[in-house]
Amino acid sequence: MQWNKTQIKQHKKAAEILGKIIKYVAEFIKNNSYATEVEVRQFIKTQYKKYHLISDKQKSIIAFNKNTSNVHYFAEQSHQLKNNNLIMVDIWAKLAEKNAPFADITWMLYYGKNLPKQYADIFRIVAKARDKAINYLRNNLKRKIIPIGKDIDAIARNYLDKHGYGDKFLHSAGHSLGFTSPHGKRVLINRKGRQSLPLNVGYTIEPGIYFKNKFGVRSEINFFINKNYKLIITTKIQKKIIKISAY
After folding, report:
1. Helical pair 5-31 and 37-50, crossing angle rounded to 10 deg
2. How many other C-beta atoms lie within 10 A of the C-beta of residue 181?
3. I need a surface site. Which of 101, 115, 133, 147 has the fewest CB within 10 A?
4. Whether 247 contacts 113, CB under 8 Å
5. What is the pLDDT of residue 64?
6. Distance of CA 239 to CAs 51, 104, 159, Å?
7. Tens digits of residue pLDDT in 211-236
8. Which candidate, 27, 47, 62, 12, places its Cα nearest to that of 235?
């Protein structure tokens, strides 16, 4: 089922609010230098309530340092923030309205004075893989061609493989956005996706690189294709890791 005009507006609004929450998370961490992953997640929950957003039964992914290497990390223990920590923030929610669809974003932050070159370099590669997939979609849509899921996935995956990180990309390049959870039951953007993406349905693009027990980097945006075959990106696109200065 395609999203109607109301649902597209609901998604865009949720995506806008999630973008704001990322900024508030950075401010919260800056002002609470001894915060734990659980406390940051609880802060996000208060922001959902403030902006009338709801999420599913799963919890936001707030990961510090080596925990960022766990694709589906969920903080059950209170791991405390330390200086020179990489931070992954993966949040998803929707407006508290009937049949509203989800928005789902992942951003990378760093708490410390000097961002390590390795983190910056890996983020640039992940961001480039993301942008390659976006440009592939745009170029095909100009010719009124909607790519199939596995071809979109291959663009991001092949770019990471070219740089020696193909075996460290541990999930799909994207997924549809649902109404009861962030993962909708639509055409897949992965190696098995053999159908073209339907118009007016929201999707993510989210490549990542993960070094086991060391660190991981992911960048996630949302988009849909309108009736005029135009790619509409509904979230902000992260250009570099957000640095939070440690005092």
Report:
1. 140
2. 16
3. 115
4. no
5. 97
6. 26, 17, 18
7. 999 999 999 999 999 999 999 999 99
8. 12
